[in-house]
Fold:
Amino acid sequence: KHTPGPWNTYKPMESNGFVWVNPIDGFCGEIATAWPTTTDGEAEANARLIAAAPDLLNSAVMALECLRQRGLDSGQVGASLEIAIAKATGEEA
Structure:
């Protein structure tokens, strides 16, 4: 349901501090714009976190599946992964 990754960050020369997040292939346009709100480097850090989202979601899904295969998904780590995955996909945990 989301634009497939990988995503990349891009800071235009005249950006007034904002950083764009775009798909690597560049065909789908802008995914997000990260604006600085307090400190130097904040927009870049936020953009990197947003750009990592597809990879983080994929890793969380794989980790949860690995825990489930071993019967270890009922603990705090499994619950945290379920919550994060649900938050990312818009589903209920």
Observations:
- The chain has three helices and three strands.
- The longest strand covers residues 19-23.
- The CA atoms of residues 36 and 42 lie 5 Å apart.
- Strands lie at 7-10, 19-23, 32-34.
